[in-house]
Amino acid sequence: MTDIGFEKDSDYSKTSLTGRVNVLKVEAFKNVYESLMEHVIMHGIDIDVDKAKLLLKLFINHAAITDLLKVSFCTSLTLLELCITSFFQIQY
What we know:
This protein has one domain (2-89). Helices cover 64% and strands 0% of the residues. The protein contains 3 helices and no strands. The longest helix has 26 residues, at 17-42.
């Protein structure tokens, strides 16, 4: 993600001013990626293989940006599957 100005080692905490600015930048880029993905879905992904590949690239970039924030909830389909699997394995 260095090509768009995000470094993994940067401060993304919400306790410092720099971290909050970085979090806001990440959130803004996430919104842009989500809008682009929605546009691709709404305009011909079902008939064009190139658009499907573009959607996959956008999703991968969105997941990489989300990982910068080190969120604890499920952020991608793979993590969602892991969360669901681990949820149903919990013994009560």
